[in-house]
């Protein structure tokens, strides 16, 4: 049984890189009919907040990445970590260390002076036949893991290939602080063990933790999971993603009018590929996804491509569903969505031409709110040659059947009758009605509005 987990630290919003890690872990479990576990790594109490936990849960829900188990909270598992530490102290795979921070600094300074790599020197590490110093009075010890000193620790990373580290490079990790609280790497190990995680898929900022975690797992007699370390995501500019320069929170994408299915599809292709396939559903992705086609090099974000994908998903989306996504956006702008025109009909006419939901809301706004055409645009398009045709069409619109073919036919008739080129009449109609020069077919736009509104807008400006 394949078991994966997503283990975010709730210190901010759900990051777009975190979302990709979550997606890959989720899809791998789904592909294999396994389980996907959500674990909140909230032991950094100074930086973890309930708001950040909520942001993660909301982000996962928005994306539709459903978990089978959890969320588990590390802060609720303290007793379990203490229990494992006690067991390790008893079996000798961990030991008390009374070295004070000041002493540690002295040790390191001496090592540096000798040209050695600064590290804990193992003075409290028990060895057969070694006599340990007497514990000093009044000093609370930390607890260290007794890392093997010989040999190497190695794993076949499913993304990066084989990685091997000499154990001699690793010093004895502190697994519990003076006050007894377990440290980060230790909690991860106990959790991955207890939650029977078979595949750890995470960002490659954790590669350095892996050899230590493997050694502790082995000391516990636990099965070592497979590891897949995902390379980082760079911004459009090729630089590390940063809050200042990029949209990094998943909620930014929601606010900026992206559909979750487009974001997921985009993230799926960020560092993973299936031939030339670009647009695919999450069902399809789960069928295809494996860890063998992940690129080890950094993936670069491409906002244009995301927008293109978003446009594909908007076009393909049901008009009624789109209407329900656009309605709150219009209400936020203080607009009331009236029965005429029906919002789904507006969606149908405009969804082909936009890349984001915000652009779709912009397009829909002209049907429900005031339109004030810009005077320059009016001057540019309300040319004297168009005025007689405009006056005549306004009169005729009062009585013709209110449907697109009849309106289209009327515009064509007026164009011919007044010897105009089509745009010479279509453009002033657009500007007067919508305040814009780019719209779908002007006949279709007119047909959506109530007749009253059209007549009012065509006569609101003196020409
Ligand atoms: N909590 C870690 C983070 O948010 C992830 C740890 C892990 O996946 O092992 O970066």
UniProtKB/TrEMBL annotation:
Its EC number is 6.1.1.17. CDD domains: GluRS_core. It is found in: Cytoplasm. One of its GO terms (biological process) is glutamyl-tRNA aminoacylation. Residues 321-460 form the Aminoacyl-tRNA synthetase class I anticodon-binding domain. One of its GO terms (cellular component) is cytosol. Residues 2-308 form the Glutamyl/glutaminyl-tRNA synthetase class Ib catalytic domain. Coiled coil: none annotated. ATP binds at residue 243. Residues 112-128 have a biased composition (Basic and acidic residues). The keyword Phosphoprotein does not apply. A motif ('KMSKS' region) lies at residues 240-244. It catalyses: tRNA(Glu) + L-glutamate + ATP = L-glutamyl-tRNA(Glu) + AMP + diphosphate. GO terms for molecular function: ATP binding; glutamate-tRNA ligase activity; zinc ion binding. A motif ('HIGH' region) lies at residues 8-18. It is an enzyme of class 6 (ligase). Keywords: Aminoacyl-tRNA synthetase, ATP-binding, Cytoplasm, Ligase, Nucleotide-binding, Protein biosynthesis. PANTHER family: GLUTAMATE--TRNA LIGASE, GLUTAMATE--TRNA LIGASE, MITOCHONDRIAL-RELATED. HAMAP family: Glu_tRNA_synth_type1. Catalyzes the attachment of glutamate to tRNA(Glu) in a two-step reaction: glutamate is first activated by ATP to form Glu-AMP and then transferred to the acceptor end of tRNA(Glu). This is Glutamate--tRNA ligase. It comes from Azospira inquinata.
């Amino acid at each position: 049984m394949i078991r994966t987990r997503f283990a975010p630290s709730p210190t901010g919003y759900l990051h777009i890189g975190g979302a990709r890690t979550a997606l890959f872990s989720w899809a791998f479990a789904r592909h294999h009919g396994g389980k996907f576990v959500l674990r909140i790594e909230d032991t950094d109490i100074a930086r973890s907040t309930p708001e950040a936990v909520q942001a993660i849960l909301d982000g996962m829900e928005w994306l539709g990445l459903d978990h089978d188990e959890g969320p588990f909270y590390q802060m609720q598992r303290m007793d379990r970590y203490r229990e494992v530490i006690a067991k390790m102290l008893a079996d000798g795979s961990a030991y008390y260390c009374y070295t004070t921070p000041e002493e540690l600094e002295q040790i390191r300074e001496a090592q540096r002076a000798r040209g050695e790599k600064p590290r804990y020197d193992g003075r409290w590490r028990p060895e057969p036949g070694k006599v340990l110093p007497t514990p000093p009075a009044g000093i609370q010890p930390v607890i260290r893991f007794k890392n093997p000193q010989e040999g190497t620790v190695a794993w076949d990373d499913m993304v990066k290939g084989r990685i091997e580290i000499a154990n001699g490079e690793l010093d004895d990790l502190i697994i519990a602080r003076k006050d007894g609280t377990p440290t980060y790497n230790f909690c991860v190990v106990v959790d991955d063990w207890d939650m029977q995680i078979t595949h750890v898929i995470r960002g490659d900022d954790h590669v350095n933790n892996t050899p230590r975690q493997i050694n502790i797992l082995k000391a516990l007699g636990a099965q070592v999971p497979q590891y897949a370390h995902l390379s980082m995501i760079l911004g459009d500019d090729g630089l590390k993603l940063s809050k200042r320069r990029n949209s990094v929170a998943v909620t930014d994408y929601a606010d900026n009018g992206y559909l979750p299915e487009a974001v997921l599809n985009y993230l799926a292709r960020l560092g993973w590929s299936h031939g030339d396939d670009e647009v695919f559903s999450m069902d399809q992705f789960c069928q295809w996804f494996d860890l063998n086609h992940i690129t080890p090099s950094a993936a670069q974000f491409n906002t244009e491509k995301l927008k293109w994908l978003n446009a594909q998903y908007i076009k393909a989306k049901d008009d009624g569903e789109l209407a329900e996504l656009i309605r709150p956006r219009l209400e936020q702008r203080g607009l009331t969505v009236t029965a005429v025109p029906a919002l789904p009909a507006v969606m149908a006419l405009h969804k082909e031409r936009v890349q984001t939901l915000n652009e779709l809301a912009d397009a829909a706004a002209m049907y429900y709110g005031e339109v004030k055409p810009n005077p320059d645009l009016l001057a540019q398009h309300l040319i004297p040659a168009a005025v007689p045709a405009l006056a005549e069409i306004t009169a005729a619109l009062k009585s013709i059947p209110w449907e697109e073919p009849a309106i289209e036919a009327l515009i064509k008739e007026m164009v011919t009758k007044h010897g105009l080129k089509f745009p010479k009449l279509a453009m002033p109609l657009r500007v007067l009605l919508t305040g814009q020069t780019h719209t779908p077919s002007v006949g279709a736009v007119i047909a959506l509005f109530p007749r009253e509104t059209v007549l009012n807008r065509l006569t609101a400006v003196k020409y």
